[in-house]
Write a structure and sequence with these properties.
The structure is a homodimer. Chain A has about 240 residues and is of the alpha/beta class. Chain A has two domains: about 60 residues, Hypothetical PUA domain-like, domain 1 (Ribosomal Protein L25, Chain P), CATH 2.40.240; about 160 residues, 3-Layer(aba) Sandwich (Alpha/beta knot), CATH 3.40.1280. The first copy, chain A, is built from seven helices and 14 strands. In chain A, the strands form two sheets. In chain A, strands 7, 8, 9, 10, 11, 12, 13 and 14 form an eight-stranded parallel sheet that branches. In chain A, strands 1, 2, 3, 4, 5 and 6 form a six-stranded mixed sheet that branches. The radius of gyration of chain A is 20 Å and the shape is elongated. The relative contact order of chain A is 0.16. Chains A and B meet through α2 and α7 of A and α2 and α7 of B.
């Protein structure tokens, strides 16, 4: 059954958003009588019968809206420096969604080489992946922020435990790295900061550690930014 | 330090392979006296000093070849149906390399929609990723094979324990799925079969189970083929 993203789900006759309508009508050639699965990305879903279509519109009837969960399930929050290559960052957004990431906070760091934010485009990636993988809650995409402003913009981060992944063998005055796979074992909610291609600076790591973050590594091989995020998400919560 | 892939590493004066030579000369503008890191993807590496360059060639001097390990470390063998989208399969090759996959066996299944094999192109992806992530052993890429011929072409698979990931809630006559994250915990070497977009057929799963494979799932969400492979690789061996 095809899934459509419909931000405002309500019982009754509903017109699908234009983009969804065009897709189901033109590409899938949906006809009256067909049934679609609708999700709002905020924990609600419905099955809806198509009652009318034309080239640009699709009207459906919703008899019942189901609430999968009232509140966003806590999970892994990825604080991540967007990669130089837009493709690689979008790929992380897609894979993170499939792997259950709760939220993304794009951060600009000392060594971030590109600072182009594409919130609309990124949001589309999250919506498509949410539909594809049958999630009920779309990951939250926060506005990009300078790493130094993160604590001011997101005071809630202090309520959950955090870690910072870096590739330096040692940094003076801070503890050695532990394996992320070990650290995350007993957590149901946490944030993890992942740096840009050139890694965080020592000072950036030190600042995060002073704020309570644990320095972690993700294994012996040198992972690209997007692989680090995906790998951490694939491990998170899987091993209690 | 830049890494070059040099299949035949030996002490003495060595000409880099043409493609590597062009890259270090034209793109990186390497000069005599610069030092490069060379790997052969078969467990050996060296540091080499550039002694001469021209537009198409780069000669280096190797004083010592180090052997990181004599034999290919056993790990996860991914038996995977190439995706319709070539990009997505190449992503999996790249990410699997970064995440330590031992070997890939592309398989054609009942529901494989495209059956185009690009061994040269795929090999290039593996080489690039091996260099990037500092692996000493490049993953082995086997020739694509029909799933039904896999046991004949790869009798060695019977020597290591295997699992098959599928999305069906139950299949008659075979055990229910267990979580891959649990199943893999105590293994240092294993193979995992991952199906195409439309999943394996019941019969394909049944045949693999009769050959000793354990049916597994990779979590609650519906993962794309390449996400399933990467996620399984990210978890493998991380939790003893």
């Amino acid at each position: 059954m095809h899934t459509c993203f419909v931000p405002e789900l309500a019982v009754g006759l509903v017109a699908l958003p234009e983009e969804e309508a065009q897709h189901v009508v033109r590409v899938l050639r949906t006809k009256p009588g067909d049934v679609l699965r609708l999700v709002d990305g905020e924990g609600r879903w419905a099955e809806a019968m198509v009652v009318g279509t034309n080239r640009k519109a699709c009207q459906v009837r919703i008899d019942q809206v189901f609430i999968e969960s009232e509140t966003r399930p806590g999970g892994l929050v990825l604080v991540v420096a967007p990669t130089k290559s837009m493709d690689r960052f979008e790929w992380l957004l897609e894979k993170g969604t499939e792997l259950g990431v709760e939220a993304f906070i794009p951060v600009w760091t000392e060594r971030s080489e590109r600072r182009i934010e594409k919130p609309d485009r990124w949001e589309k990636v999250l919506v498509a992946a949410t539909k594809q993988c049958y999630r009920f809650w779309k990951p939250k995409l926060h506005a990009a922020v300078a790493l130094s402003d993160m604590w001011t913009d997101h005071p809630w981060l202090q309520e959950c435990q955090g870690a910072v992944a870096h590739c330096m063998s040692s940094i003076s005055d801070i503890p050695s790295r532990v394996a992320w796979s070990d650290w995350q074992t007993s957590r149901s909610r946490a944030w993890l900061a992942i740096g840009p291609e050139g890694d965080f600076s020592e000072e950036e790591v030190r600042t995060m550690v002073l704020r309570g973050a644990t320095p972690v590594h993700l294994g012996e091989l040198r992972l690209r930014t997007e692989t680090a995020g995906m790998s951490a998400a694939a491990q998170f919560g899987r091993f209690a």
